[in-house]
Specification:
The structure is a single chain. The protein contains 11 helices and 5 strands; from the N terminus they run H-H-H-H-E-E-H-H-H-H-E-E-E-H-H-H. It is α+β, with helices and mostly antiparallel strands. Strands 1, 2, 3, 4 and 5 form a 5-stranded antiparallel β-sheet that branches. The protein starts with a helix and ends with a helix. The relative contact order is 0.15.
Length: about 500
Amino acid sequence: MNALNMTSLLRPVRIGSALLAALLVLAGCSVAPTYERPSVDTPAAFKEAAVQTGENGSQWKAAQPSEDIARGEWWKIFGDDSLNALEDRAQQANQDLKAAAARLGQARALTRDARSAYFPQVDAGLGATRQRPSPASQGLPADADTRPSTLYRAQIGVSYEVDLFGRVSSNVDAATADAQRSEALFHSVLLALQADVAQQYFLVRELDAALELYRGTVQLRQESLRLVQRRFDEGDISEVDVARAKSELASAQSEALGIARQRAVAEHALAILLGSTPAEFALPARPLTRISIGIPSGLPSTLLERRPDIAAAERAMAAANARVGVAKSAFFPSLNLTGGFGYESAQLGDLFNWSSRTFLLGPLVGTALSMPLFDGGRRQAGVDRARASYEEQVAAYRGTVLNAFREVEDNLANLRILGDQNQAQDEAVAASARAAKLSHTQYQEGAVSYFNVIDADRTVLQQQRVSVQLDGERARSTVNLIRALGGGWGKLPAPTQLSSAK
């Protein structure tokens, strides 16, 4: 008899153990597709780097930043303290960067929210109900008298969804990938900010160089006007030469004012990047000097690891793949375990007596285990949508990679051609300056008209202006190449450090 009782007592335990083991097996059966990064065509070398000659078939030598340069602070290779200070200021105060950091914080919070589904949800409640049951609900005649009653409750409820077929874990994987994508996008915004600050800075410096050039031109034309005026006063030349000299002086002054206007606008744009109003920011004038820095282009395959926008596109694919698993899990049973323990009493003073205890295992309404049978194609539509979204992200990823290759090739070509163009332009400036000097000498000797002098001076100014523009373009192309290659030669600052800065 004792053995029979023991067997009866153990039977529910065995059944429960078997059920638990089965549920654990089902919980490990995820229906999410295995994620694999799609292949992309990667060239063996950059075309524009390969066409250059030099050491190892290329004049592009690996850059050797100083050891004291912090990782990711690529702008320090320019050796410009003013630029270094502006970059630090922008990372602390730029509003777009703070918005990107806030978006990253939201994505990380959503990941924690998704992970919370791994754990039981526990809540507590305390309240009272006042009710008067109908006679019919008590099995009494319709005219029977029923009295109202008050019931006090204090209970703790527990609910837990068993992760059957990987629905919860797929949700967590998708949220995690989204957070990683947001982090990559943050670094993309950071890199864009760093590059924009450097480009805007070099634009201001280019305009400073142009202003210095026009100030010198204005001084020369003022001297020419005095010379022409003196000769006119002496009766050596006609008034036409004086009028031409005045016209050229006024034209140079007008062009100088136009460049000053452009410089003010560029400085205002730089102030906004720094998180300041234009009234709070002023950059002292300093002409741009020619920049010639070797940037390591590296191998195209490394571009996939360096570019934050490529990393963001890849993480978007991973999130879309995980959501395919979430959509598929809707075809399979779901199991929700619920329970509650507490006290119920008709008198508030008896609420927490041991005799007033109550418990509930299983849902109050509905079933614990539910399985879909027919939904008119809604679940299949969800799967089809998730798969189409994944294919969209695959196409976007491959498009991002192709665009990255194009940007690198464009800037390699720009710098290669700009080097030759600078050399030719230097020769043009020297030749035009020599011709202008000879024209001035001949005019003073009366061998040529003042029109020849004006034409020669215009040519010098034009060639010098083009030279300054090429120097600015070369500086900006260097920044663009660094940006196209993914930034510096190491890791970028942590988002939490930048988002917490005031």
